[in-house]
Write a structure and sequence with these properties.
160 residues; Nucleotidyltransferase, domain 5; 8 strands; alpha/beta; 4 helices; single chain; globular; three-stranded antiparallel beta sheet; 32% helix; 32% strand
């Protein structure tokens, strides 16, 4: 049985679907945050391991039996900046094949079905992503809580 894990990893929670080759969902899992820019690496690894374990439990498969992990992750940009860290995290919990992109990319694809257009994403962080008919991409925002906190600390230091 070839299973693909589809993951939406965010700043608040991580959701995982285990999907078979016929497109049927055979398991689901949910856990805590997995944005590597917002939480400690141990939290990221625990959240990914918990969500994937829950999704695989109904089929009794092991991570090495998963064909591929396809993940849209907060903390990974639309141009895949930050994907390497998440690929390493998936390897660390037992998944050797992964395709990692930003959460805004999977949200865009889900909302617009692969068509060109603009998507406003608002969750723990926020971002606007536009993808044109030729695949060109423009992103505005996407700084999340970390940048807001950093800006606040800079302002506090400036006032001292």
């Amino acid at each position: 049985m070839g299973i693909i894990l589809a993951i939406d990893g965010g700043g608040s929670r991580t959701r995982c679907l285990a999907v078979d080759r016929q497109g049927r969902v055979v398991g689901t899992g949910e856990s805590g945050p997995s944005n590597h820019l917002l939480v400690r690496r141990g939290v990221v690894l625990d959240s990914l391991a918990e969500a994937t374990s829950k999704a695989l439990a109904p089929s009794a498969l092991l991570p090495e039996q998963v064909v591929c992990v396809s993940a849209g992750m907060a903390g990974v940009d639309y141009d895949k900046t930050g994907a390497g860290e998440m690929e390493e995290a998936f390897r660390e919990i037992g998944f050797t094949r992964s395709l990692i992109t930003g959460d805004m990319v999977i949200a865009h694809a889900g909302a617009l079905g692969g068509r060109s257009g603009v998507l406003a994403l608002a969750g723990t962080g926020s971002c606007i992503l536009g993808i044109g008919p030729s695949g060109e991409r423009v992103k505005v925002g996407g700084w999340g809580r970390c940048m807001a906190m950093k800006a606040a600390l800079i302002e506090l230091d400036r006032r001292r």
